[in-house]
Amino acid sequence: MRTAPDAGHWEVVVETPDQAEVRTRVRRLRKAGVDGPLIRLDTLCGRLALPTTCQLSLLVTAAERKAR
């Protein structure tokens, strides 16, 4: 399975408090043909000191890592 723990690692694409930017980035990835399971969205709760941010990550497989 390509999303198995040993298949690759998650690389952060963007971290921002702007949810509209995250949605735009996800749309662009999907339009470029990136499958949903290869995209990860995390919400990082800031509490009082920092604003809540969204982190968009993309799975980079071992094969893609070698190609770089």
From TrEMBL:
This protein is called what?
Answer: Uncharacterized protein
Species of provenance: Streptomyces fungicidicus
